[in-house]
Amino acid sequence: MEYVYIATTDSYYPKAVTLRITAFFKGMKDALALINDADEAIGIHLVTIDNQHVIGTGRLNIKEKTAIISQMAIDPMHRNQGIGHTILSMLMEQAMAADVTTIELSARKTAISFYEKKGFIPTGTIYRSAKTGILHQKMTYKVVATNSIVV
User: In angstroms, what CA-CA distances link 63 with 72, 123, 149?
Assistant: First the structure.
């Protein structure tokens, strides 16, 4: 198993998109349009590859001093093996290398505790995603001067 940063032109990118559609937008007629939002082309994409298959993915966007992590998805057959933890840690490290002060994400309600374990704090109220209607919570991680993450 390996973790690789890819471009949207990489041969693994369509496989990552398929995984994200399956995880977030399955059955939605405009799924590809929902994936191709304003941040997709400029995002930093990380995939987990096992036997030439993309089994995990995540996206990072940097906007001034804020990093936004999104589109994290793990193949159902490979969950609870630490893949999500590693993807999140690597994206956080990449964000910190860009000298951000804050990392934000929108977590599904069912994943809030996962992100809390990494030091993310819920901010605001739970809301329905405009894309899927699924309940989400905005979460924030304040980067400390030492650039360390919770492991």
Answer: 18, 19, 20
